[in-house]
């Protein structure tokens, strides 16, 4: 339906936000695509973007009228993005920082002649929209060489209504990594964790199977200062 019609149907929701909310901008962490769809269905567009402090916050963005949920949008004016080795996202342009203050070693590693090495893994689709796969430092390389990104697993796992929080990490072994998941279940869940994981594995690819797991013994996971999961 056109947005004007949605605004009539969902007038109560629009009144809660003052009646003049044109869109919601989202960045900093992956957006659950179902959350985005619900906002869009109510007639409130969700504009996802992507960037980093090192590039003055914003590098790519969706725009009104050309939104592709689940993507980080397209590069903004004067910003160039390359996909480097191992699909690492490299950003260049006039908004790029000159480096880290009093830290030449980190500066040399991150700022190259091609631009800023983000450490994020991504790819462009056929329409030129950037899709973020995950952080290179947290990817899991299985003994057979397959690469798994923890964010992909967590998106599927979080859709299960019994899961309050999940954190997937790599258990480092001599012959390769092993997928390990910590779970925090919602109050009142009666199924044991083995049953929950078994049902979740049915929705995951063969290489993504969770074979090792445990319950986390606190109400929340450790967090960074930006409230992201502190996997380290």
Keywords, separated by commas or semicolons:
single chain; five-stranded antiparallel beta sheet; alpha+beta; 232 residues; 14 strands
How does this model look, in words?
By secondary structure, this protein is of the alpha+beta class. 20% of the residues lie in helices and 29% in strands. The chain is built from six helices and 14 strands. It has helices at 3-9, 11-16, 33-41, 104-110, 150-158, 193-201, and strands at residues 24-26, 46-50, 60-61, 74-75, 80-83, 88-92, 111-112, 115-124, 130-135, 140-141, 147-148, 163-173, 176-185, 212-215. Strands 5, 6, 7, 8 and 9 form a five-stranded antiparallel beta sheet that branches. Strand 5 (80-83) and strand 6 form a beta hairpin. The longest helix is centred in the N-terminal third of the chain and has 9 residues, at 33-41. The mean pLDDT is 92.
Concise synopsis of the structure shown:
This protein is α+β, with helices and mostly antiparallel strands. It has helices at 3-9, 11-16, 33-41, 104-110, 150-158, 193-201, and strands at 24-26, 46-50, 60-61, 74-75, 80-83, 88-92, 111-112, 115-124, 130-135, 140-141, 147-148, 163-173, 176-185, 212-215.
